[in-house]
Inverse folding.
C-alpha cells in the first residue's frame, strides 16, 4: 500500500504543480486575453486530470477490497472503443481506431474506463498518434493501445494510476493485462466462450 | 530539431516530461528579458540533441524522465558545456535524490510546487553562482549526502529496481518475483537487466557477492 500511496501522491503532484504555476501566470497576465485563456485552459485540464486520478484511486481501493461491483451484460467492445476514441479526439488527443467486432460479457462503463485509461497512459509518453486496435485472438477479444515511438520503459507505464486501473478492470472481467515498451494490451474472454 | 538563437541572452533549455508544466515554465521564463528559452523538451534524448546543437547557458531539468533521469542528463550537459548552470526541478524533495543531482553537477534544486517567484529566484541565484536549495529541503542532510565519497551503489536503483534486487539476492526466481510484485515476467527481466547494468555485475552470483559486501 505504501508504494501505491507513493505513486498516487506523485501522480497528483504533477498536475497540482501545473495548476500552481499557471495560477501564478494567470495572476500576472493582466488584460492579455490570449494569455489568460491559455492559463485557464491549462488549469482546467490539470484539474480534470487530478479529478480523474482521484476517482481511479478510489476505484482501485474499492477493487482491492472487493467492493467494486460490475454488471455482466453482452457488450460490443468495438463500439466502446470507438466511443473512447471519439471522446479522446474531442479532447485534442491524436487517436486512431482500428476495430473489429468482438463481444464480451461485461460492464460497459468499466470497459470504457479501461480503454480510456490505456489511451491516456500511452498518450502521456509523447504526442505521437495513439492507435487503438480491437481484434479477436482465439478465445479473447484483445484491446491493444500503442504509439509507434513510445520510448517509456515498462516500469514507467506500469506504475501509472491509469495502467493500474486498466489492469484491475481487465482482471475483474476474467481477462489479463500486459505491457511492453510500445503497447498496453488487455485480453478479455469472448462472449462465445464465456 | 530547430533551435532558436540569440547571442545576447542566456540560452535556456527546459527538460520536463509534463507538457502542461513545461509550457507554463516557458511562459514564466519568457517574462525575463535576460533569458531565451531555446528549447523545451520532454525526454533525455531530445535534450541531448539540443545540447549537441549549440551552447546552453542554463538548463532546468526534471528529476524523473521517460527511460532516463535528470541525473544522467545533468552529467551529459555538464560534460559538453561545463559552464552551463543546471537547476533541478521536481515534485520530489527526497534528500537522496536531490543530493544525486548535486553530485551530478546541478547548481541548485527547486520544487515544482514552489511559487513561480521562488523558481525565478532560484534561477537568478544559480546564475550568480550561488547554490539554491528549496527551503523545504534539509540542506544539511543534502550537503552531507552530496559530499559523501562512499555512496552506496544501491542509491542508483529506482524503488522498484531495489525491490527486484532484494528478491534476487534472497534467491527468488523471475517467476516468483513477477508473482509477488504482480508484474509480468518480461518486466522482471527488464528490471533485472537494469539492476545488473547499474551495479556493474553480470550474474545473480555477482549480485549476492555485492550484497554481502554492502551488508544488505
Amino acid at each position: 500500500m505504501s508504494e501505491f500511496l507513493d505513486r498516487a501522491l506523485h501522480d497528483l503532484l504533477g498536475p497540482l504543480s501545473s495548476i500552481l504555476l499557471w495560477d501564478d501566470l494567470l495572476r500576472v497576465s493582466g488584460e492579455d486575453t490570449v494569455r489568460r485563456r491559455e492559463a485557464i485552459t491549462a488549469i482546467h485540464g490539470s484539474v480534470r486530470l487530478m479529478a480523474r486520478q482521484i476517482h481511479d484511486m478510489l476505484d482501485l481501493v474499492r477493487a482491492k477490497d472487493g467492493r467494486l461491483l460490475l454488471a455482466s451484460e453482452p457488450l460490443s467492445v468495438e463500439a466502446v472503443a470507438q466511443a473512447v476514441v471519439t471522446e479522446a479526439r474531442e479532447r485534442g488527443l491524436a487517436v486512431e481506431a482500428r476495430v473489429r467486432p468482438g463481444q464480451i460479457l461485461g460492464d460497459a462503463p468499466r470497459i470504457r474506463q479501461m480503454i480510456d485509461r490505456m489511451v491516456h497512459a500511452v498518450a502521456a509518453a509523447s504526442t505521437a498518434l495513439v492507435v487503438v486496435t480491437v481484434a479477436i485472438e482465439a478465445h479473447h477479444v484483445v484491446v491493444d493501445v500503442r504509439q509507434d515511438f513510445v520510448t517509456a520503459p515498462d516500469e514507467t507505464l506500469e506504475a501509472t494510476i491509469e495502467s493500474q486501473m486498466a489492469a484491475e478492470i481487465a482482471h475483474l472481467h476474467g481477462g489479463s493485462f500486459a505491457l511492453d515498451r510500445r503497447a498496453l494490451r488487455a485480453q478479455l474472454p469472448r462472449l462465445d466462450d464465456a | 530539431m530547430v533551435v532558436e538563437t540569440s547571442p545576447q541572452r542566456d540560452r535556456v533549455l527546459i527538460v520536463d516530461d509534463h507538457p502542461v508544466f513545461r509550457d507554463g515554465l516557458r511562459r514564466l521564463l519568457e517574462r525575463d528579458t535576460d533569458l531565451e528559452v531555446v528549447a523545451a523538451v520532454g525526454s533525455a534524448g531530445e535534450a541531448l540533441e539540443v545540447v549537441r546543437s549549440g551552447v546552453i547557458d542554463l538548463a532546468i531539468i526534471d528529476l524523473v524522465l521517460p527511460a532516463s533521469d535528470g541525473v544522467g542528463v545533468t552529467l551529459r550537459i555538464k560534460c559538453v558545456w561545463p559552464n552551463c548552470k543546471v537547476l533541478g526541478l521536481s515534485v520530489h524533495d527526497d534528500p537522496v535524490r536531490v543530493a544525486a543531482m548535486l553530485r551530478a553537477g546541478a547548481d541548485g534544486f527547486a520544487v515544482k510546487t514552489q511559487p513561480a517567484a521562488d523558481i525565478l529566484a532560484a534561477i537568478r541565484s544559480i546564475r550568480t553562482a550561488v547554490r539554491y536549495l528549496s527551503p523545504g529541503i534539509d540542506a544539511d542532510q543534502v550537503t552531507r549526502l552530496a559530499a559523501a565519497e562512499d555512496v552506496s551503489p544501491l542509491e542508483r536503483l529506482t524503488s522498484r529496481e531495489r525491490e527486484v534486487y532484494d528478491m534476487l539476492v534472497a534467491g527468488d526466481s523471475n517467476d516468483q518475483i513477477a508473482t509477488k510484485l504482480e508484474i509480468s515476467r518480461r518486466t522482471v527481466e527488464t528490471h533485472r537487466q537494469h539492476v545488473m547494468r547499474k551495479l556493474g555485475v553480470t550474474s545473480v552470483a555477482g549480485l549476492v557477492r555485492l550484497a554481502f559486501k554492502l551488508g544488505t
